[in-house]
Amino acid sequence: MVVAVLAAIVVGTLVLTDNSATVVAPPYPHDHLDNPHLPWLWGYGFQAIWTAMFILFAIQTFRAKTISMPAMLFLAGTTMFWIEWPADWGSYLVYNREFWTFTGWTSTWYQTYTKPVIAIFGYGIFFAVECVILLKLVPKVSALLQRAVPKASPTVLLVVSAMAVFYAIDILGERLMTVAGWYSYVEAVGPKWESAHGTLSFVWPAIPFMLFAVFISLTLREDSDGNYPNEKLFKVHTLTPGWQRESARLAVWIITMNIAIFIAQPLILCLGRALFLHDSVYVP
Fold first, then answer.
1. Which spans are transmembrane here (predicted)?
2. pLDDT-based confidence at 130, cuts 50/70/90?
3. How far apart are CA 240 and CA 189, in angstroms?
């Protein structure tokens, strides 16, 4: 029921903000996005990687009769692609239009104009990798800091570790994709990193994005019985082990991650642009 309501909200949001029938294509930043590098990776590679990951996770799930946390984060991350277009509007991002895009879905009402289909697959891969890093690497970094500063709060150290690790990996990933000419923050806010094919900002959307990392890192902390706080909130841990419980766990993680990313990206970015930043000819 909760997932159905969330799905209805997502679809309703996309429908209500769709002005494709009347929108005029905005100017395109040819100087940034013409002749992208490795177009085959963006065009076909991510679909192949996503499909391979899905098959491997499916085999693992049916053998173990439980959904592993990496698989959970992969599936939940894939469902978050819908927030990309309004987040792009808030951060002035333009995608390369040479790739496979959603035909006819060109709304510019609080959305970027060009919407690549690859975002669906890219979100699953990106957030699976990022969240597994939050799950595996961040606690180790936090433990190292705890040994260096034994009197510091473990929660504070976890938050600091999550922000630092997530920020570094996010900026590196964005750098690679903007250098490749897959997309560009055409009117980057604040300090920026420029290349011949694309530009990224060091602060927008990167800093709001860290809120997502902090929230997920805190949510990935198990209690003494191995239960996660969001699963306990919905009392999933009280269900009998089996596919019903695993389906409920997946639903809870989909809800958790979608709410977290919605707040950390499109909500903050769109409000920030509308209230404090400027209009754009490329992302009107």
1. 41-59, 66-83, 117-135, 156-182, 202-220, 250-276
2. confident
3. 50
**Domain spans, the chain:** 31-276
Q: Which two tokens stand for residue 98?
A: 């040479």
Q: Which amino acid is at 28?
A: Y
d(CA 160, CA 46): 31
Place of tokens 């011949």: 196
The token duo for 78 is 């894939």
pLDDT digits 0-9 by tens, 65-101: 999 999 999 999 999 998 999 999 999 999 999 888 8
Residues 6+ apart with CB under 8 A from 1: none
Q: Which amino acid is at 235?
A: K
**Cis amide bond preceding 205, omega within 30:** yes
Rounded mean pLDDT of 140-164? Answer: 91
Task: Tell me the pLDDT tens digit for each residue of 195-252.
Answer: 988 999 999 999 999 999 999 989 998 888 889 999 999 999 899 999 999 999 999 9
3 state SS of 200: strand
For residue 156, which of 69, 227, 218 has the smallest C-alpha distance? 218
Exposed, middle or buried, 48 (CB in 10 Å: 0-12/13-18/19+)?
exposed
In sequence order, what DSSP letters do the residues of 106-160 get, joined into one string? ---SSS-S--BTHHHHHHHHHHHHHHHHHHHHHHHHHHHHHHHSTTS-HHHHHHH
Q: What residues form DSSP beta bridges with 1? A: none
Predicted TM-score (pTM) of this structure: 0.90
Other Cβ atoms within 10 Å of 214 Cβ, number: 19
- The number of beta carbons lying within 10 Å of the beta carbon of residue 158 is 23
- Tokens at residue 64, please? 């173990």
Which of 113, 73, 36, 53 minimizes the C-alpha distance to 212? Answer: 73
Contact 188, 98 (CB under 8 A): no
Q: pLDDT tens digits, residue range 38-62?
A: 888 887 899 999 999 999 999 999 9
* Radius of gyration in angstroms for the set of CA atoms belonging to the chain, rounded to a whole number: 20
Strands 183-185 and 93-95: antiparallel
